[in-house]
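Hi, here's the filled form for the chain we discussed.

Project: internal
Contact: R.S.
Residues: 258
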Amino acid sequence: MVNLPLSRIPEIFVGALDYRRDCDAMDIGQATFNEERLYRALEHFAVAWHREHGRPAIVLDLCCATGLTAERIASAVPVKSIALVDIDPDMLSRAGIRCAPRSPIESYCVDAVTFSSTSTFDIILMNSSYHHIEDSRKPAFLVNARSLLSHDGALLVGENFIFESTGSQGKQRSVVRFYSILLKALSDAGEKTQAINIIRRSGLYCWEGFYEYKVSWRYFLTQIQEAGLEVREYVAVWTATDDPRDFAGSCAVRLARR
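And the returned structure, exactly as it came back:
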């Protein structure tokens, strides 16, 4: 974690509300327009997988938080079972309660990077997961996810990608630029002040280099290729700029084994 004087925190992050161990705040922060679009896109990908293969899905949700993504997928397609993985026991407990009416569940309070199973999974969910993994551990996270994916399975990712940058100061400038645009978009869309200030805190975490580790789209593409994965389809549900050479925004991605 980078410990900087309070006076150096960018103005856009003033008023941020912590959510790291607050289940209610986590849910509120996931209810904004761009996050809802990510949920819908991931549902679409799951439906496409089910149409292709015609069987109830065995689902794994890595970094499941409060279980919102697993619940949405289980409401969109037939599900045989759901495995929930999160390192926070309170988040995991809420996820279990939320998903239990939809499907048989198993809960694992473990590190998603090292989670192991003797079974493979048809649909693996990684919504707002990749950016909670430290950059040094991201390759292992993707390799592990690939090893858990069935040969014809779908790895569904929902992510917010920041602008490309170089070096730690460049990364901080990228974070400020990205969140300046996102926070204005949320305000213009009439999102609740509490939700905006929770998102503000996610930006501050990312700027500090603690708990949130967002990266660029190109960085992500390089890592999935190295992990033996490939993009089957993707949709940018919100973009921070109209310049395709400088993409940043909210993107849903369907990955498969290469």
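Let me know if anything looks off before we file it.
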